[in-house]
Amino acid sequence: MFHKLYLLFTEIVLAQVPSSGVSSGGVWPPSKFGSQTIGELLNRIAGYLIEISIPIVAIMVIIGGFQMLFSSGDPEKFKKGKNTILYAAAGFAIVLLAKGITSIIENILRV
Asked: Which of 57, 49, 84 is nearest to 69 (CA)?
């Protein structure tokens, strides 16, 4: 899965700027993500992270539920399932905050 994410961003990382240069504030290549500024690029990346994290969170909540269901009265196994759900929710909250952080960074860079 991570190699697919790497391939998604290699054009941005490995792209060479043409000899004519890039207009101020632009991102090269602009056609890959349809972004013209760094803020737009960060917003698109945050959007992709949200899209990727939704199914992962759902799977982790299901796994945590099964851990709790099959704990057989063992408090340690039940706590492990509870923590799995808690950590999945906390991670998803951080991913959602990334969208807000990108707008804060964009506003700071505009000054």
From this structure: 84
